[in-house]
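The freezer alarm interrupted the setup, so I double-checked each line after restarting. Inputs confirmed:
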Amino acid sequence: MAYKNYILVCGGTGCVSNRADEIYKNLVKETETRGLTGDVQVVKTGCFGFCERGPIVKILPEEAFYVDVKPEDAAELVSEHIVKGRVVERLRYKDAESHAHARVEDVSFYQKQFRIVLRNCGAINPENVGEYIARDGYKALEKVLFEMTPDDVISELKTAGLRGRGGAGFPTHMKWSFSRQVKDDPKYVVCNADEGDPGAYMDRSVLEGDPHSVLEGMMICGHTVGAHQGIIYIRAEYPLAIHRLEVAIKQAKELGLLGSNILGSGFDFDIELRLGAGAFVCGEETALLASVEGERGMPKPRPPFPAVKGLWKKPTVINNVETWANIPVIITRGGTWFSRIGTDKSKGTKVFALTGKITNSGLVEVPMGTTLRDIIFNIGGGIPNGKKFKAAQTGGPSGGMIPAQYLDTPIDYEHLQELGSIMGSGGMIIMDEDDCAVDVTKFYLGFTVDESCGKCAPCRIGGRKLYNILDRISKGTAKTEDIGTMRTIGHAMQRASLCGLGQTAPNPIMSTLRYFEDEYMAHIRDGKCPAGKCKDLIQFSIIPEKCIGCGLCARRCPVNAITGERRQPYLIDNSACIKCGECYSVCKFDAVIRA
Amino acid sequence: MAKMTLDDLKKFRAEKKREMDMRDPEQKTVQIIVGMGTSGIAAGAKETLSAFVAELDERGLTNVAVRQTGSLGLDFAEPTVEVVMSDMPTVIYGRVDAAVARQIVQKHIIGKVLLEDHIYDRPAADIVDTQKR
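Predicted 3D structure, all chains:
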């Protein structure tokens, strides 16, 4: 027989270091002495997040979420909650605190995230249109086809305050109404699924987990602006997302949700896929459209904007995957509902792909205005191995690094821009004290140099110049003046480049120069890499007094650069060393030093 | 299926809603829902799924449906699995390899006890169907 209650005690590292083990033992003891072992199961769990408020105890089936629990509280939890069935208010997590940014009726109990875009991800079978429909799928389409006028739809989006989730944050209703106003035929609706930022996979997850939400969003737009053809531009590196989209389109066609005379409304709409070969520049809208037309993926000067003259010189609404997935919810729940979530100028939620030096990596969707601290330390579970947080990189190669002093900044389009970064599509890479600002920046510049299409000189030449300087800095051969040169080139690129790729390529440099200039100077003036990342500036050596001569480092060294006799101090041959750091990480006696 | 009209779609939705809500104790329907996004599959979700099917088969459990879904976003704990059954709380298990999958069948579904060290928290409330919880 099943138990009446289940007491879940968080077994994450943060909670355990705060005596969660003792809580667990006390709870077991308490249930035993009260003769409740047949009624209650006490279970240790994986990390629950919310680590700043740990230890966490959750009691099922009531879903009572207790925070800051101490071992002494075990008796009260059992006697009050389990025996008397009364929630212990003193310890219960109060919702309001973390949800100042989501003033909506749905937040009736604790939750860390707020999922609009990811509403169906992990809830439905993405290859079964029936499950999407059961969860209010295609209800928005019904409403748009039979109850609303196109102008109603645009004004609903305006009320909602939805802005493009691809990065720049352009108001969606404006794009749609530009296209709607142009008298031309045919018009096109395009989904930008060319997700290319290193470490970002929000769009992939939406397409894999809930493809119909994107299709529905595009259909609604088609009806609103007067288009009958939708195109999803997706990179060939996403085979599972492509497969699920193909299944979704097929099923929608079979049901008559795509095709001619949809649901008997007289509206015709079709969607097809175009596979990209994975060039980063094709995420830029004019380059993407060129690629769809079969041209080489290169940007064109704007205006004319695609909304007026886009694909085949016809009006084209182009939005990112995450933007499309928001549309059906805005239509079914209403723009007012949506506008209550988020901040003044940035409405709704944002999905982030949380990666790097973070305990709980994964996809996170939070109301706009949530702080970095909440995302990293509550949802993400903090930095692993007791290391110190250094910075969060947002916006990928077009963004910047946000250092620790801005952890409490609310995340929205405006605040990120003020800090010299951008929202971008939602990649968030967490760096700890072992990451070097120069090294990371060099990585991003290397990426944009590789991905530059070469059409305009500022990006083609400027990017390479910047990369070369960074390379010299990382090798300790740069001069102090190089910093100024980088700023000059960077400013020129920001102003003169043809498209977003070149205009934003210097951002990683500009933002790290703003917050980590001392680190650059340490490389240039002292020839040191404080984080110990830049290989040309570090040397490994063994402290003879500390080395016990176990030989572990020598066995692990991939190039046999370490020699010695057992029980005698070992020695590193620096001419052979490739600076991989293996000896440093395997030594149990801290005898290997990095300087 | 034939092309639908507006009324057909409404009927179809109502019917599917009933199907998905089936948590009828009489039927003892159990659902095992495996997260099959790219990150889940990379972490071994396909092996996990096969282990569930094999274990259910070996034990002759016919009232259990094994379903697939996209990613829950708990990438650090992939593969993730949700177990829904009438007389147990709905739980999300993480780091479910083939061995853990077999334990879930033996302990959670048959033995009605929760597994140690593998439970993770649902990341967010459901905005589509909040009244269900």
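Quick read of the result. Chain A is about 40% helix and 15% strand.
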